[in-house]
Amino acid sequence: IMNKPAKLQPSQLTMILTLSAAFSVMCAAFPFTLEQLIGTAISIGLQILLCIPAFLLTRRTDSLAAHCKGHKFLPLFFCYYLLLAGGRSVVQLWNVSGSLSLPVHNALLAAALIAGICFYTSTLGIQTLARSSTLTFGVLLLTLAVMLLGGYRSIHLQNLAFSPDSCIWSSVLQHLSLADELPVLVLLLGFLEKQPVRSTFRFFGFSFGIWFFVLFLGITILGSFMPHAAYPFFTIASVSQPFRTQRADALYLIVFVLLCILRLTLFTTLSAHLLGEAFPKLRFRNGICLLIILGHAVGIGILGLSSSWWYIVPIVLLTVCVPWSLLLLDPPESAPQKQ
Questions:
Q1: pLDDT one-digit tens code per residue, 104-162
Q2: Cβ of 202: how many Cβ atoms within 10 Å?
């Protein structure tokens, strides 16, 4: 959020949010079940409804940008959540990397390298991130195609059955707790010049498509082995090798690292801009935000809160309550009209 915010193309918004959601798919640490698949569909439907206040606010004003100017509480509220979500992402990266064969054997060194890359990319701005998302999106689609090519022979539709250890309601809440793209969407709508609703629906369509694809493969391929899969996405990848050698493993690792860097860069870039709205004279905002993200990661890791349902509360507050409050408390005639 800047005085003259860089503008994004509708397709760029869709890809940035989709790639961020894809990282959550790869880091999912719960069993893939038919209940989870149904719950994901319900959750995405609820998320679309939660975005209605943001759509209305975007139609009336330049999203949240006009309301952040001259204020501290609103930008800092969003900023803190982004820093918290960034810390959660670092913990997810750390947990998943423990079960992967990384080129760098020291996990701490690997995390430091990724943090350094994120610091550099965050200083380049949101437009650079948006341009890079096009290539990353292509790599993601290639990865999913390789996964299907390697695993379609192992699909057993009889595994599509309800599980006695899972329920749809808990699956809905579990997926909603991962929906940290919603507050980011509320912020990024201010960077769009056109098609905010269409871009959002495309994102939800892609997000559901990726979740459905991976959940379906996990249920039908892993079957009874699912309860033993710590991270089902990578378990599917290990048994879905389209080549005689294990070269596909490198592709899965590359896309995982790319998605992690994009996600952390997104959180760092947006939080630094919001921090600048609250404290315009503050320098080294990107570095400060990245350090706070790492600090949050330590706290979240110690407390074991990386997969708690309580994340739904700030998501709903920022996605629904804040836009509704701005709509009700700020009269339409006092808000600057979009050109």
A1: 556 667 777 888 899 898 888 888 898 899 999 999 999 999 999 988 888 999 988 88
A2: 18
